[in-house]
TrEMBL record:
SUPFAM superfamilies in the record: alpha/beta-Hydrolases (SSF53474)
InterPro entries in alphabetical order: AB_hydrolase_fold (IPR029058), Esterase-like (IPR000801), Mycobacterial_A85_antigen (IPR050583)
Gene Ontology terms for molecular function: hydrolase activity
Segment forming the signal sequence: 1-26
Gene3D superfamilies xref list: alpha/beta hydrolase
Keyword set, alphabetical order: Hydrolase, Signal
Superkingdom per UniProt: Bacteria
Annotated protein name in UniProt: Alpha/beta hydrolase
Amino acid sequence: MSFSFKSLNRLFVFLFVLFTAVSVHASEIFTMESKLLDEGITARVALPESYNHSDSFQYPVLLVMDGSTQFEHIAGNVNFLSTFSIVPEMMVVGISAKNRLKHFTHTEIEGYEGRSGGAEQYTRFLRDELLPELQNKYRVSTYTVVTGHSLSGLYTSYLATHHSDFINASISVSPSLWWDEFTLIKDIKLAKQESEKPPVRWFVSMANEPNEMAESYERLLNALEAKPESIFNWESKQFPNETHDSTPLIGNVEGLKSVFRGFNAVPNIEIKSLDQLQAFYANYDKAVGYDFPMSVHQYNVYGLKAAYEGKVDWGQAILERGVEVFDQSEILWDSLATVYSMNDNNESALKASNKALHFAREHQSKYISEIEAQNSDLKKQTER
């Protein structure tokens, strides 16, 4: 069967039913005492919805600065985008600095002695205290993304340009690059390649903002355009219809898509076999310098796309591999049941559906109604 927009629309309807009401799992509260900052830290953690589908799969972590105001919409967008394999599934951690001016600026300026210039100390806290605690408590991989807005956008810009040893990708929404007479931009002009590690993937954006904000953004673009990609791997976007306060929502969505550009193996209407998917991600991993194993939603979306476009055997192979890796995933077992049914293998379809129903009940899955409906239909078919 040739791939068509009609069949793609049919698939979209199916996925819409399956993924309707995509939402963030209830967040957990994570607390710790920081010796480096000499203060108590409270963070909010949103686990990927597939977290309980495996006992060993590790997830990248997205550190959200100003978590008290930015955590919820970013966690929701990560959940939505990862559901359709636009970005990887990630553990989202929202943290809030009690002293933003001190922690998010890397230089101390006159008049703010003792109240600015603490970015390096805050970075040590994130790297040496927070992440190890998260790794002890959760299945966190070594791939780290940071995002910040305004003053914390200045800080994530600092991490992008000064700490490729610590982070892999950074999002800076309307960053306060004017700080200390544009000192960060001066650093960029002097920057040289320091290691063989791929540079941080960095997305920076600006809303419709006047004066020093607009000037700093223009200066930044000029400085970055003069540098090779081997030093700074960056993209930028301006949002003329947004204000400083409204821009974090769209800025983070575009930022996530930017730092994970090329991640989606099947972005439009083409399909791939399991072997082709594995080859695709081997190339992607080489480009970004990190091994991204396929997640629940990647196996699910790619498998269903292949099956619904006439390559049922391709879809079956992808989903069968998926349940090998994520043997407790109600999503994958349910989709595999669908594909077995498309292949007129009702006995295998019912076995897969029974597993999906078991795990859906165990996980109190939001997909329980759809899974129960398919299970009931398959039982009726096998009884005929």
